[in-house]
Specification:
Elements: E1 10-14, E2 26-30, H1 35-48, E3 52-59, H2 73-84, E4 89-92, H3 94-104, E5 110-114, E6 124-130, H4 135-152
Parallel strand pairs: 1-5, 2-5, 3-4
Antiparallel strand pairs: 1-6, 3-6
Length: 153
């Protein structure tokens, strides 16, 4: 599906308890696979694409999940840091991320890849952004357009 997705679409790689959402643009696929493997594969595919780059979000709750309540969470936190490498990660409360997804799903498609992971607050949210057009380039374009409009008046 990656060639069809673009700027403003999202890909979510989620644990097995992530809810099936009803927003019209949300498509859920059961991967029956390990979450870290799916994150690696998706990031690799995005990295090899010509059109999109990921903006990474994760749950703010993850650092506070205790090993005693979620066996394996400590190892997961170490491994996901390694998989994400030096990418910048924005952390937001889970409910805030779900709300973002609900809102985006009203206008743009979202692909949810469910994994077999059974540790809470481990979802990786990837907002796709344009790879070949930066926010700086957009700002320069808008500034040039404002100058041209002002010069006409």
């Amino acid at each position: 599906m990656l060639p069809l997705l673009g700027h403003r679409n999202w890909i979510l790689i989620v644990d097995s308890a992530y809810p099936l959402q009803t927003s019209p643009g949300v498509q859920t696929v059961e991967t029956d696979s390990d979450e870290l493997t799916v994150v690696r594969q998706v990031l690799s595919a995005i990295g090899h694409s010509i059109h999109v780059r990921p903006i990474v979000y994760m749950d703010a709750e993850l650092p506070f999940v205790p090993e005693s309540d979620a066996p394996g969470v400590t190892e997961y936190r170490q491994k996901i840091r390694s998989v994400l490498g030096d990418r910048q990660v924005t952390v937001l409360p889970h409910e805030q991320l779900i709300h973002k997804v609900d809102e985006v799903g009203k206008t743009f498609d979202i692909l949810v890849l469910k994994t077999n992971l059974t540790i809470p607050y481990t979802s990786v949210f990837l907002q796709l952004d344009c790879k070949y057009w930066s926010a700086d380039a957009e700002a320069r374009l808008r500034k040039a357009m404002r100058r041209a409009a002002a010069a006409q008046h």
